[in-house]
Amino acid sequence: MNATEPRRRWWPTVNATGPRRRWWPRSVRARTALAAASAAAVILAGIGWWVHHDVYRESTGIAQGQTQKQFLALVDQLEKGAVPGRRSTVPYEIVATGRRAAVAYGGGMEEFDPGTRHVLPAPPKAELPAPPDEGPNWGYTTRPVRLPARPDSAPGDRFGKDGGTYQVMYDDVRADELSSDTVAALGVAADAQLRVYVVVLPHAAEDIAGTITEATDRLLLRAGLVSLVLISAAAYFTVRIALRPVEAIRVLTASVTASDPRERVTIPAAGHEITALATTLNTTLQRLDDAAAQQRRFVADAAHELRSPLTTLLASMEVALAYPERTDWPAAATTAARQTRRLQALAEDLLLLARLDTRTPIAGPETVDLTALASRLAEQYPLTERPLTLTCDSTAPAHVQGNPDEYERLLRNLIDNAARHAAHRIQITVRNQDAWVVLTVHDDGPGVPTEDAERIFERFVRLDDARSRDHGGTGLGLAIARDLAHRHRGTLTLTPRTLGACFQLRLPQAPTSAGK
């Protein structure tokens, strides 16, 4: 691209978690509103479909009920001696035995010209029912009847060129049940059987149902659209209000830095999920603050520990160089070598702690016999400074899995700590207890106060501040021992004793030895 070429603008297509759709909103409020509107649309569509079909079914039933009501009214008029008129909302026809033309008709049946010959069949005399014992017979029958074809039908007629098959309701009335005047008015014989037909037009019921359902559908559509807008707006503003504490948490945590992680989040009064989030975040910030403070303290302690031997080494070298003729060079070299060894040991301890802090897994764990290792260290441990008795008591091999060098470093640190404080004797015991291997290192020294039982495992902690640093260690031995125990899925604790200090190491047995 040269300087004159216009810069093209591109929409971002990826984010931290992968590709992002351009049409999908980024805001949680908008996403929630869209999801709520989508869910509401599906639910409202289902409700609308159910209401539409239910209204259609009810409307069809109402239309059929109206047809039945008019049919019963025709039968009632006939039995009361009244001749129904031709104006009717439903097609009907009254036929009689022994009569060619229809007795009465209307509601569209005139399209078939029943005045010449009735359209629907007359009841045969064989089907004449017996006179009822009491009251009128209100029973009726419904069955399909095929109407004759009409080649001269007009487009607006209720029936097409081919009349088709329609459901009809019919009921029979005996002429001898009517008065003589009614029989004469109807023009039938005294012993004739009359049959009242009403044709059920499906399109009439559908027209009524369609009109009702169409109005219902329009109402449901308007109500659904308004509901979607209201639901979306309610979801949007509800989530916006609910996320205000989250925004406050975000603003506050943005000010937290690695050098100053002392900020804390205000915990909302309501006990909801955001309260749990704020509490967890405060706990995390506290852990970060503790870790940062521990790191600063560790760096300061390490610098202090390194400065002491370096100062001693530098001072001895400067004095020797200033007065070479009066310097005891073998003694100066011995002092320099001692301080150098101390620096080397401190550097190795610091490197080991840094490696343990990385939580790297043990590469190729081996099966180690702690009984044999403890016995070998007890036999080879140098006790030249003062007379001490170091014994190892064990009853059987104790197999564990891990790094042999790290196990040796762990036991050696425990023995070194006991040797610095023991008065006369140190005892190591190794036992197999259930699925654990328990090793203890007990000395007969002054012991450890109860309030310092956990503090002694911290880095650079030495309870006897007046003790010489050259003989008292760096304060990293027990911290390294506990980290090595945790690294091998075990524990290292100080168990209470009336005399001296007793450190207990618990490690899981190796699978091969646990089943023996």
From TrEMBL:
<dbReference type="Pfam" id="PF02518">
    <property type="entry name" value="HATPase_c"/>
</dbReference>
<dbReference type="InterPro" id="IPR005467">
    <property type="entry name" value="His_kinase_dom"/>
</dbReference>
<dbReference type="InterPro" id="IPR036097">
    <property type="entry name" value="HisK_dim/P_sf"/>
</dbReference>
<keyword id="KW-0812">Transmembrane</keyword>
<dbReference type="Pfam" id="PF00512">
    <property type="entry name" value="HisKA"/>
</dbReference>
<keyword id="KW-1133">Transmembrane helix</keyword>
<dbReference type="InterPro" id="IPR003660">
    <property type="entry name" value="HAMP_dom"/>
</dbReference>
<keyword id="KW-0418">Kinase</keyword>
<keyword id="KW-0808">Transferase</keyword>
<dbReference type="InterPro" id="IPR004358">
    <property type="entry name" value="Sig_transdc_His_kin-like_C"/>
</dbReference>
<protein>
    <recommendedName>
        <fullName>histidine kinase</fullName>
        <ecNumber>2.7.13.3</ecNumber>
    </recommendedName>
</protein>
<dbReference type="InterPro" id="IPR003594">
    <property type="entry name" value="HATPase_dom"/>
</dbReference>
<keyword id="KW-0902">Two-component regulatory system</keyword>
<keyword id="KW-0472">Membrane</keyword>
<dbReference type="InterPro" id="IPR050428">
    <property type="entry name" value="TCS_sensor_his_kinase"/>
</dbReference>
<feature type="domain" description="HAMP">
    <location>
        <begin position="240"/>
        <end position="293"/>
    </location>
</feature>
<dbReference type="InterPro" id="IPR003661">
    <property type="entry name" value="HisK_dim/P_dom"/>
</dbReference>
<feature type="transmembrane region" description="Helical">
    <location>
        <begin position="30"/>
        <end position="51"/>
    </location>
</feature>
<keyword id="KW-0597">Phosphoprotein</keyword>
<feature type="domain" description="Histidine kinase">
    <location>
        <begin position="301"/>
        <end position="511"/>
    </location>
</feature>
<feature type="region of interest" description="Disordered">
    <location>
        <begin position="127"/>
        <end position="161"/>
    </location>
</feature>
<dbReference type="GO" id="GO:0016301">
    <property type="term" value="F:kinase activity"/>
</dbReference>
<dbReference type="InterPro" id="IPR036890">
    <property type="entry name" value="HATPase_C_sf"/>
</dbReference>
